[in-house]
Predict the 3D structure of the following.
Amino acid sequence: MGEIESVRGDITRQAVEAIVNAANTTLLGGGGVDGAIHRAAGPELLEECRRIGGCPTGEARMTKGYRLPAKYVIHTAGPVWHGGGRREEALLRDCYRNSMELAAKHGIKSIAFPSISTGAYRFPIERASRIAVETVREILGGTPEIEKVVFVCFSDGDYAIYRRLVGEMQC
Ligand code: APR
């Protein structure tokens, strides 16, 4: 089974084949990691995103990486947290599952995720990180094509949480 690791850093600088963008359903860019990825990739990324024409919450769409070190960007629209009564947990699980399945379909061997929905979309980090690591671990078990998944944490607090969860599940 492929390895899972967590690092503290900037996802736009990760030397993996694909990085996942915590986008919105328009795919037309935004702040946070979405803004960072578009700034680093350059204007061609937005042009390709425009041609895709959007992405429903929980689904994933793939583009080239352009000026990023990563060859591809997998864009997924996470759920906005409204308290948990609107299938937020299921939709967040779908983001990780659909991104992994899209990567496997394209023969991508290494993929990096940000902590989807835990910034502007206000999904509680404790719940979101557990969903992220559990879903990736479950999919990885049945997807030998993917050899490495990296959770890229942008804060020390998030890194401490993901490191503990990834460590717990390695055994
Ligand atoms: N590398 C890795 N992680 C990052 C980076 C970066 N360069 N920049 C921000 N993050 C982290 C945030 O600290 C947070 O932990 O990504 C996580 C997700 O936060 P957001 O980027 O705010 O994404 P999200 O909560 O999913 O909200 C998505 O925000 O930017 C808009 O267009 C986007 O409307 C969409 C919404």
Helices lie at 32-41, 43-52, 88-105, 125-141, 156-170.
